[in-house]
Amino acid sequence: AQHAAEAAAAALQRAQAAADAAREEFEVVKGHEAQARGAAGAAAAAAAERQRVLQALEAQSRAFNAHREEVERDEVPLLQEELHLRRQRDLLESHEARFRSASTQFSTVRRSEAKSTGGRSATPPPLASPRGGHGILEALAHGQ
What's the whole-model pTM score? Predict the structure, then answer.
């Protein structure tokens, strides 16, 4: 009977040791589960932060694109005005070249007349261009 009692006591100790080991393993598993829940929570928070940053970047991109489109719309009349001003400048440079040519021709004619008439001009300066357009004085008076 003593042998049976010892065997029962040994079996009880083994059962308690197995229960303690199971309890420790359960606590380890609970710890791992808590870590996994914490990691999942951190991952969800990181995903939410990434989503928030992405939405902010998309909003900035939309605002930038809207501003760029506005600038492009505002730029069209300015570019048209620039082209108009360049055409006017080219036209004025053309007129200036013609006026310089006419002035040079006039000066040449005046010098040759002055030589042939002894220093006095036989004809008054031309007021109309030889091409039938406005002369220098009329062009200047009309702002051309």
Answer: 0.42
